[in-house]
Design brief:
alpha/beta, 5-stranded parallel sheet, 3-stranded antiparallel sheet, 10 strands, 28% helix, 31% strand
């Protein structure tokens, strides 16, 4: 079997950067960005704050700090759509600004990596779903080095599937599937307990 050529991490990083900047550009004018704290590190790997400023970001707030001010009409939230507590926090901050600010704010929510039924339901129950624009940032992998990818999840296994196909008696072919990406890896069954992962090798315990 020919060796797997690996993945072009530069192209993954550039796509993530372009996707995020396109979404920010779609919100015209100056805007404040409210970001989930666990996403700040991964996002910082592919886009600089100076670049965010070029795309209209005035201030950046951590969602968990609940200290968003009313200095800009446009407010963009960037958070995980699969975490109920983040959805509730976003709804609370939107309602607080609506009640206490003299500005008629425009709110956008960018869910990472996707919009979910849970996020829709919670925002609807809070009475703010109709007041916001909802987008998705399909950020599944974050390149941290030329041959190393990090999963952009605190708890990835709900969205990670390993499909085994036997190719000979003592080898298996595994497909790591994240979203629509499939990364094949051929490994010896004697090494099942190894958990090292990079773009050219992928070992997971059974």
């Amino acid at each position: 079997m020919a060796p797997h050529p690996g993945i072009d991490t530069d192209s993954i990083k550039e796509k993530a950067r372009k996707d995020l900047l396109d979404l920010l550009e779609g919100v015209r004018g100056k805007k404040n960005l409210v970001i989930e704290q666990s996403l700040a590190g991964p996002v910082g790997l592919f886009v600089k704050f100076s670049t965010l400023q070029d795309y209209g970001v005035d201030k950046v707030f951590f969602l968990e700090n609940d200290n968003l001010d009313n200095s800009q009409k446009n407010v963009v939230f960037l958070a995980s759509g699969e975490k109920a507590n983040q959805c509730i926090a976003i709804a609370g901050q939107i309602k607080r600004l609506q009640q206490n600010s003299s500005i008629e704010h425009e709110f956008s929510v960018i869910w990472v990596p996707r919009r979910t039924l849970v996020s829709n339901k919670l925002l609807e129950e809070a009475g703010v779903l109709g007041d916001i624009s909802v987008e998705e940032l399909p950020l599944h992998f974050v390149p941290v080095d030329q041959d190393v990818l990090s999963l952009a999840y605190d708890d990835p296994f709900g969205d990670l599937y390993l499909v085994r196909k036997s190719v000979q008696p003592d080898f298996d072919l595994l497909f790591l599937t994240i979203g629509s990406e499939k990364i094949p890896h051929r490994y010896s069954l004697q090494h099942k307990r190894s958990c090292r992962y990079n773009t050219s090798t992928a070992f997971f315990p059974e």
